[in-house]
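A brief tutorial aside. Many learners find it easier to grasp structure tokens once they have seen a single protein encoded end to end. The record that follows does exactly this for Patatin. Read the sequence first, then the structure, and try to relate runs of similar tokens to stretches of the chain.
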Amino acid sequence: MAMNSFLDNESYDVDKLTHDIFALLENKFLFGSSIDGTKHSVSEKTDFKHRTIVDSLSKNDAGKVRILSIDGGGSTDGVLAAKSLVFLETSLCQKYGNPNARIADFFDVAAGSGVGGILAALLFTRGKDGRPMFTANDALQFLVKSGGRLVPSSKKNGVFRQIFRSASKTEKLFRQLFGESTMKDTVKPVLIPCYDLSTRAPFLFSRTDALENDSYDFKISDVCSATTADPTGAGAFQLSSVDNRTNIVAVDGGLTMNNPTAAAITHVLNNKDEFPFCNSVEDLLVVSLGNGVSDSGCQGQTLSRANIIRIGGEGASDMVDESVSMAFGGNVTSNYVRIQANGAPKKNRNELVELAEKMLTQKNVESILFRGKKVAEKTNKDKLNWFAGELIKEHERRKSSIFPTVMFKQLSPRTSSATVSTIFSC
């Protein structure tokens, strides 16, 4: 009787309870938050009073860590993400009143897989003037002009469905572009995955790890080759760290991490040296850029290995998006934005750019816990424009905050070794 009366109580929200339970579970298993919702202390050795003060101040003053995540190829071979970045950077320049503003100025961490890793490298690698090498528009133009070598078109049907490339040509292209730059030479923390055949496990190239140990520092040209290496045949790419102590036989990062958003979030939440006050997803501001899902279908066709891998990558990306959305719970509309769209591949890259432009006017299909899908209220452009405003708010807030939201490690200017120093950053 008690149970029946409990369930019959109209004030009891079963959906809310279910949502809360699964949000807590996802936080626990995906991102390491505690089941009871309590936050991790900055240091296990600090006393209770100090932890209370730090938690209280961090909630009010420490702000949000800003994460950019970029998927692998998709139906647009990276063009949708590149076009999204152009729109976002243009919006940032206009709202901030600085025509020279860059994507890297407003993000603390960038993660990219496959062609998304190439975009992250282009936008976050330090140039000769100390600023990022490429603007978002430069990166888009590079992708359009060089896309035939990075992501060659499939001979069948003449469309951009193949997600692989000719290794020798792209390796040369990346070496010309990035020279001797290594993961240490990115302006902010960057994460780029591959799959290592020698250990049969994913490997995540990381600026943070590179600064700690030369055995985890790799040339950016090699990293780009690794994250886009052909997994279907003899296209595996062999690379070594700068000290030759770590050796990897890499294939496409999209095999296991086509959507690197969860990896980026986990990296931030577990990196207390650089993000000391970031304790849960409430302390994050995340944009995840997809690259389109083909709506042409494969019914009645024999699936090639390339199509099977593409479908697997798209499905894995959607699952990561759904898991991350559930982990954010009630903060999903204010702290997390996912850009994705549907569209059939085109015959040439100029048409692909036009398609990506149209995709930005689409409204996403979003996952609802136990209720399937729904169409988002805002278009992709509207969401990016709103997100630009949130990035600028956080950027401005840090100017008057007494607490450093991030404490990036940098190479000491007095030595060429892996000695690192910590600097505060806005």
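Self-check: The chain is about 40% helix and 15% strand. If you spotted this yourself, you are ready for the next section.
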